[in-house]
Write a structure and sequence with these properties.
Elements lengths: L2 H5 L16 E4 L3 H12 L4 E4 L11 E4 L2 E4 L4 E3 L3 H10 L5 E3 L4 E6 L2 E7 L10 H5 L6 H16 L5 H5 L2 H7 L4 H16 L8 H12 L8 E4 L3 H15 L3 E3 L3 E5 L4 E5 L5 E5 L2 E4 L3 H7 L4 H12 L2 E10 L8 E4 L6 E4 L1 H4 L7 E7 L10 H15 L1 H5 L2 E13 L20 E3 L12 H25 L1
Parallel strand pairs: 1-2, 1-14, 2-10, 7-16, 14-20
Antiparallel strand pairs: 3-4, 5-9, 6-9, 7-8, 11-12, 12-13, 15-18, 15-19, 16-17, 17-18
This protein binds flavin-adenine dinucleotide.
Length: about 475
């Protein structure tokens, strides 16, 4: 007999509760929780996943707006996001995303021809040489200063605390990158990836992104996006995969408290309480929620981390035009408020014939949070008309705004020390979430990696329990 046998199926219930046989309880059904639950189930554990909402996918999901399906916000990934792409494979939906066969970004500018950043089929770092030489938003001086900065970036160690303590913007200035280069290149790519401008970003996180994405493997930064609503991947397909793996999914169930003995108190929509008890708990909740439900001394410590990490917003402006106005799947914007714009027509689900559904994605969007939806829609209608000749004649059929004030933590200098690792001092309790110490900024890739790391901690805990028995 093993320890496992004694714990599996243990139910500590309040009257009226349903007995729940679990050995691992995963708290939170975002990408971190999904990844953890699948890994634990694949490792042979009996898993229950608890999620407050009526759907899975967390920050990367979809909701209904009338007949249309709307994503919580535009999401992209890169070819180097191997853990996230592995999750898509595991969910059986790798065919429902589009991945460029080579990095190709159109850069729209008002009153100027679009520029283009397209990689060559050469090994890194030569794959971008020709594209950058031809990239006319940069002066020749700026273009010629790039290789030295890129080489210095490549030599940085993102695990070094001194590197993390430094601002990316400062470092760029020290390496000959003027304001035009920061705006037209480093922030163009860095702001959506880090959810911060270079001046507000940790050099370590920026170095991770640029080294992995642009300076390692030639194909690493090829861009991918969902060809369907995010909910089709992270909710519908995820539920199916979890069910097939034997995971019990409890939606509409809120975690209220976690005891040091791994008793998890939850409440359903009817407010009825259950207490679940398991061999192990993976907490994949947002930082501030984890801090409020986990026991002392962990909870209060996490509260301090969550406060120090802070939150950075993302705002999306959704515009439905009566005709196609954007001739490419997506584009970046320069010298305009439009940071990136995506054609999401294929995912809308109820688009009038001939119409086009565009989403303008605004990262580090603090300034846009207090602005009303009508004003934002008009502002970005006008901005797109400055960038896209077709939009000047086109009629706007619908416009609305989605806002996520806590889209990511603030990837500020000194952030690394505030991100806890998966293993905690409490036996059998592991942490996951894009905000934990993954080395990545808060991304889908970071979330999946964190879930897998927490699953490994939990399995290790159980292995040790078995040996002890
Ligand atoms: C608008 C927007 C755009 C983004 N764009 C990109 C992008 O382009 N590329 C990229 O890689 N990343 C992007 N991100 C970031 C990415 O979505 C997140 O990093 C990732 O989804 C976080 O996953 P997670 O599982 O760590 O957290 P979450 O998704 O926050 O999951 C936590 C889960 O816990 C649940 N929960 C909360 N409280 C409780 C409770 N008390 N009981 C039970 N359950 C609870 C929540 O409902 C949620 O489902 C974007 C985020 C936003 C908001």
């Amino acid at each position: 007999m093993t320890f496992v046998g004694t714990f599996v199926g243990t139910f500590v219930g309040t009257p009226g509760g349903t007995p729940v046989g679990t050995s691992v309880v995963v708290l939170g059904g975002g990408l971190a929780g999904l990844a953890a639950a699948l890994r634990c189930a694949d490792a042979g554990h009996e898993v229950t996943l608890v999620e407050r909402r009526a759907r899975l996918g967390g920050l990367a999901g979809s909701f209904r707006r009338g007949d249309a399906t709307v994503d919580t916000g535009q999401h992209v990934f890169l070819r180097c996001c191997t853990a996230y792409r592995g999750l898509l494979d595991r969910l059986g939906v790798a065919g429902s995303v589009t991945l460029q066969d080579r990095l190709d970004v159109t850069v729209l500018r008002p009153d100027a021809r679009p520029a283009r950043l397209r990689r060559d089929r050469l090994p890194a770092p030569w794959h971008l040489g020709r594209a950058l030489l031809r990239y006319d938003p940069l002066s020749w001086r700026d273009r010629l200063a790039l290789p030295r900065a890129a080489a210095a970036l490549r030599r940085l160690d993102p695990a070094d605390v001194a590197v993390d303590a430094r601002s990316f913007g400062d470092w760029l200035r020290d390496h000959g990158q003027g304001p035009a280069a920061v705006r037209a290149l480093w922030d163009l790519i860095g702001t959506p990836t880090l959810n911060a401008r270079a001046d507000d970003a940790s050099l370590a996180l920026a170095a991770t992104v640029f080294r992995l994405g642009l300076l390692s493997d030639a194909g690493a930064a090829d861009i991918g996006w969902a060809a369907v609503p995010l909910g089709a991947l992270h909710d519908t397909a995820a539920r199916r995969a979890l069910e097939d793996a034997g995971v019990r999914v409890r939606l509409g169930t809120t975690v209220l408290d976690v005891g040091a003995d791994r008793r998890v108190t939850v409440a359903g929509r009817d407010r009825r309480r259950d207490v679940l008890h398991a061999d192990a708990v993976v907490c994949a909740l947002p930082a501030e929620v984890a801090a409020s439900v986990l026991p002392a001394p962990l909870g209060p410590r996490l509260a301090a981390s969550a406060d120090a990490l802070g939150a950075s917003p993302i705002v999306d402006v959704h515009l439905v035009w009566d005709r196609p106005v954007l001739p490419v799947p997506f584009a970046a914007g320069l010298d305009t408020e439009v940071q990136w714009v995506f054609d999401r027509s294929a995912a809308h689900g109820a688009l009038p014939e001939g119409a086009q559904y565009l989403v303008v994605s605004l990262s580090a969007a603090d300034a846009y949070l207090p602005v009303g939806a009508t004003a934002l829609v008009e502002r970005f209608r006008a901005e797109l008309a400055r960038l896209l000749p077709g939009a000047r004649e086109a009629r706007l059929l619908d416009g609305f705004v989605t806002r996520e004030p806590r889209a990511t933590f603030r990837p500020a200098p000194g952030t690394a020390a505030r991100r806890p690792v998966a293993r905690t001092a409490l036996p059998g309790l592991a942490l996951a979430g894009a905000w934990t110490d993954t080395g990545w900024p808060a991304t889908m890739e970071g979330a999946v990696r964190s879930g897998e790391a927490a699953a490994a901690v939990v399995s290790h805990h159980r292995d040790r329990a078995e040996v002890a028995a």
